[in-house]
Write a structure and sequence with these properties.
434 residues, 6-stranded antiparallel β-barrel, mainly beta
Length: 434
């Protein structure tokens, strides 16, 4: 007996298999999305203040052991690590924790107590208070060495194209020395190369985290001057806003680092200075065109506001003068850590040339787990006066302190180019770990 399978029956089985596959794929996608949502709802680092009751309410069905990792050193066994004083923590409900002193802990979380979720660092920090500043600042920074911002060619005496630095130096390199002679300024670099008489030179260069030596031979241009075919920079200037001043007279500002405008690399500084600046003009922001504050800066010793000691991805930091400390907008306020921030009304402090003032904003989103540390807070300008004057967030407002519920929670960092009324901020705790 023969059995015949009709083509329609074969197609039906195929359609069912495709349907089952799509359903399985969709279910997997939903589960993965839910898992990621819960993963991102708990930050990889949770900070709590020493000596203060802290409520953790992440509303995630995850629990785990909170413990301090002890390190034991012995002659026989060497160095060993272990756990001490573990505590079970359930983040499926509101939890109040308290630590008596500055310390570090680990928390291994599992969903429903079974599925591994993530490892969390719990850092206990000093319960400090900061003065929100909101002061406009003129920034002048001097690079360590001379920064290479471009490499090209030039016409030589013989009419040929020359590019001595090609394949030797790179954009973003810092030239620290030439033939063991320290380079501190662009003019020094130009003079040394011009007087080289075409001899091979040894360049000591900082490239990323490494310091290396490379060799190159300058060539003469049409005017008979020896050149390397590089564009360099040895300083940068700009306008920003001071975020806070601590009890020791140290400041934090900008909420992001000072990057070279051509290479986008974080500038390595030899020194930096803050100067008093007066806001003399405002270019309103519009869709696709960010606005800016224009400041008048007089680089005079009498106008110095402070010294910049660090330029990091989290902002610029240093020591301010007593006069600057006294001019902060507010008295000391407590910190608002990321888990304490709420969606809803908040304020920013900045100056538009008519004195430092408070303006209304709204926190629209809180990115507890974001690869970009400068974009943890999403905010929208709601103050009618600020919107009428600037159109929203403009360049020069970077560093404006963000206040919510009487606490300093962060600083403005970026504007959304397609919507100048909206932008980003950095959590204040990120600025404290520079």
């Amino acid at each position: 007996m023969e059995y015949l399978i009709e083509p329609r029956s074969i197609k039906g089985h195929l359609y069912k298999r495709i349907l089952y596959f799509l359903l399985t794929l969709g279910l997997f996608g939903i589960m993965a999305s839910l898992y990621y949502s819960m993963w991102s709802s708990v930050p990889s680092t949770i900070m709590i203040k020493a000596g203060v009751d802290q409520e953790l309410d992440f509303k995630v069905p995850a629990s785990g052991e909170l413990y301090r990792e002890a390190v034991e050193v012995s002659k026989s066994a060497g160095t060993r690590s272990g756990r001490e004083n573990s505590l079970h923590v359930d983040l499926g409900r509101s939890v109040t924790v308290r630590a008596s002193q500055v310390d570090q802990y680990k928390l291994y979380l599992k969903l429903f107590g079974m599925i591994p979720l993530k490892e969390v660092d719990v850092e206990v920090i000093q319960d400090v208070k900061l003065k929100p500043a909101g002061i406009p600042i003129g920034i002048y920074v001097k690079t360590r060495g001379v920064l290479v911002v471009g490499i090209g060619d030039f016409d030589g005496e013989d009419g040929q194209k020359y590019s001595p630095a090609k394949y030797v130096l790179q954009t973003g390199d810092y030239i620290l020395e030439i033939n063991d002679q320290e380079i501190n300024a662009k003019k020094e670099l130009i003079d040394i190369i011009n007087h080289s008489e075409g001899q091979e030179m040894v360049f000591t260069v900082q490239r990323g985290e490494s310091v290396i030596e490379v060799k190159a031979k300058p060539e003469q241009n049409k005017s008979g001057e020896y050149k390397m075919g590089i564009w360099v920079r040895d300083n940068a200037q700009g306008v920003g806003t001071m975020t806070y001043i601590d009890e020791n007279g140290c400041f934090g500002a900008l909420g992001h680092g000072i990057n070279d405008i051509d290479t986008s690399t974080l500038m390595t500084l030899s020194k930096g200075t803050l100067y008093h600046t007066e806001i003399i003009g405002i270019t309103r922001g519009s869709i696709g065109s960010p606005g800016e504050l224009t400041g008048f800066i007089e680089y005079d010793d009498n106008n110095i506001m402070g010294e910049i000691t660090d330029n990091t991805t989290r902002g610029i930091f240093g020591i301010c003068t007593p006069e600057t400390e006294a001019s902060a907008y507010s008295d000391f306020l407590p910190l608002g850590l990321k888990q304490e921030i709420e969606k809803g009304p908040a304020q920013i402090i900045c100056s538009l040339g008519n004195g430092t003032q408070v303006y209304d904003v709204k926190i629209t989103d809180i990115n507890l787990e974001n690869d970009n540390i400068n974009r943890g807070i999403v905010l929208e300008i709601t103050d009618p006066e600020l919107l009428a004057t600037t159109g929203g967030i403009v360049q020069g407002m970077s560093g404006s302190p963000i206040i919510q519920n009487g606490k300093l929670i962060g600083a403005v960092t970026h504007v959304l180019v397609q919507d100048p009324a909206r932008g980003y901020g950095i959590f204040i705790e990120e600025m404290l770990v520079h």
